[in-house]
Structures are given as structure tokens and as C-alpha cells.
UniProtKB/TrEMBL annotation:
Molecular function per GO: protein-disulfide reductase activity
Keywords: Disulfide bond, Electron transport, Redox-active center, Transport
Similarity field: Belongs to the thioredoxin family.
Protein name: Thioredoxin
Gene Ontology cellular component list: cytosol
One biological process term in Gene Ontology: cell redox homeostasis
Domain of life: Bacteria
Length: 108
């Protein structure tokens, strides 16, 4: 099983905003049941679309600056960034197909 890369307050800019590929970012916490349920879905996307997107995680408890910068008030929050800009926002848990539809433009 793939473990999506952890991104921190210190590495967010370089790993996400300056990435050449679109990056799916999950804002999560280890105590959140919904985040636990979403993890395998995002891992499947990371494996299946590795040539199109990167998938990373930001622990909101360990990285409060990044969480505050994006006004994270609900977790899981999943954002897709491209060219340094947030293009898509999804709050909550969804099936793999749901995310494939939401991110379709970036998965082709």
C-alpha cells in the first residue's frame, strides 16, 4: 500500500505550489474517522494516476500555519492545486469515482 507523502508548513510551497504536476492535497488529522476512511481512496488515486498527479497529505494538527492559510475548518478537506493555485475544493469523504469526476480535467 502506498503512503501518500506528508507535506509540512516548511515544505508546502516547494512540494505543492511550485510543483510542475497538479497536486491533490488532503488536509487531515489522525483522530478523524472520516480521514481514515478517505485515505485508501486517495492512495488508489495516487497509484492509478501517478503519471498525471501527485497526492500528498497535510496533518492540520502538526502544520497549523498551512491549515490556517487555507482556512481549513472541516476535515478531510481535499484541494487540487495547479500552477500554484487552488483549482478544486472538496470537503468530506467521497468514493474514488467521485474524485475521478471532480478531477477529470487533470487526470487525462
Amino acid at each position: 500500500m502506498v503512503t501518500n507523502k506528508e507535506v509540512t508548513d516548511a515544505s508546502f510551497d516547494a512540494e505543492v505550489l511550485k510543483s510542475a504536476k497538479p497536486v491533490v492535497v488532503e488536509f487531515w488529522a489522525d483522530w478523524s474517522g472520516p480521514c481514515t476512511r478517505l485515505a485508501p481512496v486517495l492512495e488508489q488515486l495516487a497509484v492509478e494516476y501517478a503519471d498525471k498527479i501527485d497526492v500528498v497529505k497535510v496533518n492540520v494538527d502538526k502544520n497549523p500555519e498551512t491549515a490556517a492559510a487555507f482556512r481549513i475548518s472541516s476535515i478531510p478537506s481535499v484541494f487540487l492545486f495547479k500552477d500554484g493555485e487552488r483549482r478544486i475544493s472538496v470537503i468530506g469523504v467521497g468514493a474514488k469515482r467521485y474524485f475521478e469526476v471532480e478531477f477529470a480535467e487533470y487526470l487525462r
